[in-house]
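Continuing the batch. This is chain 6 of the set; chains 1 through 5 are on the previous pages. Same settings as before, nothing changed between runs. Recording input and output for traceability.
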Amino acid sequence: MNVQAESSAARDVLDRPLAATSLLDALTDLLRDVRATEFPLDVPGVGTARASRTRLVDQLADHLVPRLRQLSAPAIVVVAGSTGAGKSTLVNSLVGTEVTTAGVLRPTTRRPVLVHHPDDAELVREHPVTDAVEIVASEQVPRGIALMDAPDVDSVEEANRRSAHRLLEAADLWLFVTTAARYGDALPWRVLTGATERGASVAMVLNRVDPASLPTVRGDLLDRLRSHGMQGSPLFVVPDLGPHEGLMDPPLVAPISRWLTMLAGADRARTVVARTLRGSFTALRPWVDELIEAVDRQAEAATAVRTALDDAVRAPAEDARRTITRGAVAQGTVQARWTELTAPGAALADVLKGGGRVDRSRRAGRDRAAAVMPLVQDLVSSASSTLAAVGAATETALRDALASGPAGATTLAGDWSATDRAADRPREVERAARDWVGAAVEVLTADDTAPAPAADDRAAKRAAAKAAKRAAAAQRALGDEGLAALALASAAGLEPADRMLVDLLGDRGTAVAATLRDRLAQHAADQAERERDAAVAVLDRPALAPDAASTLRLRLAVIKGLT
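Output for chain 6:
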């Protein structure tokens, strides 16, 4: 490894406190925003995006931010490798005593161990990974570095694998241990490729090598290192000792000890840190770019789902209007109540017959108004039931659209199921029905505020006077509430009520019924929209906004300017 190679950006960070502070602030902001990034929709590639987000958080939280916060902290050397490669034995042998468990049971390293020089204790204690490791002080570790025995990268336990990858992201230097029997395994090379992608400094230890096969194995391993862009990485070889327990003899690990001692020097350690920082800064940009693209895909998927829901609600909304126009609300109890009210001797019987035999006294009007109040309650109930049926039909249409909809729609369907529409809908439809009923008097009296005919328009004035006289007679016959109930029944589609209303009010009765019918149809269409809104509400989160990635873009631009 060319320990002298480093970028001017990394050197600036190490040598200039102001540069380090500015970059630390920028990376801290980026870390906060990356942690807040979500991928709620299961679109293609979302698993990779979530894994990339975790990797980026680990890199920022466990390496870049703590390193910039404490540039003088020891260089973290993570001893990593495959199961049974001898990592723990190597760490114990380098330290000269057993500080981490070594043995034949797998996995051996269940809790990572961090070994440091006693004089570095205060600096080490502030590192974020210390919450997941056991800390040991040893005079045998050169001051300026800290050795960490990590779990196996291919551990059978998911928690161990996750811990190993987190610790590797926190490393300033990887000391990767493999064996003559396992150096060709695919997984370690995938891990090492990830290391080179982020520019980490790496050294290799080839353990348990039969002297007879050393030239062949060493040559093959060097070829593999070159093919992975790691030709500058130091390679240390430890011979096969056969069945062995305890520490290795000091001469066997002396080359590695001397190399670590050399790295522990102030200039060398800073160079290793600078080299890894340089690689981390270089890798950071495409990682954030990938995250931005993934966030954009989420926003695009959310837009596609919204469009699908908009399309799906159109047909139910139109069906709802037709249902109202066909007179669905007038069926059942409303029809039965009307028949009761217009039976011989009932409250509306004489009004139904018309002519001069109608008692138009105010007292008779009040009695009829009171008698038709049950009709109003029936209209509220019937309108509520009709609107509820509209809502249920719309929900079914929306769920069908999501089941066959664009990417991410199935996620929305699952989240939407958590909302209790069955509980919310009855309150919504009853409120809408009562609003419709409550508007009847307003609609009936709306013409009272219409402009008076021009002074020279005698025909219009005669027509207006006739209509006013007719309205006054109708109001005396039924009262305001009774006339409103009649108008509502007509608007609901009850033909006898419509004929009575026209008989009482003429053309104005037709207009009033049409207005109320339109309002009820609009309530039905609004209910369909409420169903759609309930589904779309699951998408109303910052992670799915069209500009969700704008903050990440801003953070990346700032970091590019600083590095």
